[in-house]
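Input/output pair, single chain:
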Amino acid sequence: MTFFWSSWITLFSFGCWLFILGVLLFVLKYKPDVEEDGTTGHEYDGIREYDKPLPKWWLVIFFGSIVWGVAYWVFFPAMFPAHWEGIATVEVDGETVPWTSKNELFSELESNNKIFTDNFEQSILVKADAAGATATLGTLNELQATMRRSETPPADLQTQIDGKIAELAPYIEKLSENPNALKVGSRLFLQNCSVCHGSNAKGATGYPNLTDNDWLYGGEAQNILTTLHNGRVGGMPAWRDQIGEDGVRAASEYVLSLSSNNGSKSNGKLDQTLVAQGSAIFQQNCALCHDKDGKGMISAGAPNLTDTIWLYGGERETVRNTLRYGRAGVMPQWETKLGNERIMLLAAYIYSLSDKPAKSTQALPVTATASKAAAPATATVN
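Output:
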């Protein structure tokens, strides 16, 4: 709030307080002339007016509210907030800070989160034989707190954070086999991820299916953790200006020839002349990300073009539009919203959904009616 508005509101409030107090004091001191029968001489419709003192209980409440108002101004930043922080304080991130509605919210969130994390460590990690993650989580929380507070964090601090996240990967695999962990993880998924990936986690156009074994950035526990913590920003550049419309058509035909079902059964017969021309264009422009055989690269988030899985569709015109105009996809980071413990549970649930033949147990995708409660998380992982 600017100084002008802060001052104006403060002066207006103080003026109202003085006016009301003045009127009350005036009424208490004013003694009208009364008749012998105790009335003031005013009469209306046969009703005569007496001069009786205000009830003591009413006066106590009224003056008490004024005292309460003054105390409020002292305890909280109600007068000139930019210059007076009040004497009330709250605990935020281990520090005692002046009271504000924002700080009070953060303090309550931390208190509630403490209850959640204690239950997570005692009731979930221990029962999943993953109690070893507690020490790593403690160190990770400290490193992240240092990162948030520091204006110029040490150069290797992010590397240390990434290292601790990687250390949690083995525990994700254990949690993915624990029913309680998967139950909480499914609620987190429904509340945060289902908007993009669907309540059954099978995705939609532009949003990956999380129940198969095709992953843009890798489907191992560590890959999923990294994606949830840091997010992903994927981009397919537009090629129309570089290779022209003829180049777009030729490259698209070659890309369709790589797919095991030619992208889509509705595409019909491929033009082999365009396929041959597109091969050269692909090797010159596309192989850097998609690899020379079109099988993609996890390090770049480039999809495999040789299978039957298409993020935006495998129809001929759709592929051409992808090459003409490019594509852009963003998976938000969930570290600041969810926290490390909830991300572990969410990662375990997502890991359990993937079609991994070697897995002994596998969670079924939940539906939107599975449950109501949960905490924060989600987005584009594979």
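DSSP finds 15 helices and six strands in the chain. Strands lie at 39-44, 47-50, 89-92, 95-98, 232-236, 327-331.
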